[in-house]
Design a protein that fits this description.
With about 100 residues, the chain is an alpha+beta fold. It has a single domain (about 5-40, about 50-100), classed as Alpha-Beta Plaits, CATH 3.30.70. It has 2 helices and 6 strands. The chain has helices at about 15-25, 75-90; strands at about 5-10, 25-30, 35-40, 60, 65-70, 100. The chain starts with a strand and ends with a strand.
């Protein structure tokens, strides 16, 4: 188990959020409503070419008013970059976002 957070905002658009996640990250289906995320693989990040489906750095679910986010405590720098990018995406349509620890 990792650190679980909920990122939410009033103007959250789940369809746009799903498109953003699919364009920006390496995505695998984790469970029925959850996605395993990693940064795209480059030569500099070839260490992430392992089994993403088995233990992704981050698990995310796109919900009606925001993201469910779970850092699997496996790769803190990658998880932090993914978290930052999710927050930046939300700030494009929300003046204020809320982050709550679950």
């Amino acid at each position: 188990m990792g650190k679980e957070l909920r990122l939410s905002g009033q103007n959250f658009n789940p369809e746009a959020a799903l498109q953003f996640v699919q364009r920006r990250f390496r995505v695998v289906q984790h469970e029925a409503s959850q996605l395993g995320l990693s940064l795209p693989i480059t030569q500099e990040s070839s260490a992430f070419s392992g089994s993403l489906a088995a233990w992704p750095p981050v698990i995310v679910a796109v919900e009606a008013d925001g993201f469910y986010y779970c850092d699997n405590l496996s790769n803190a720098p990658v998880a932090a970059l993914i978290f930052k990018q999710l927050c930046e995406f939300m700030l494009t349509t929300n003046e204020v976002i809320q982050v709550a620890e679950l």
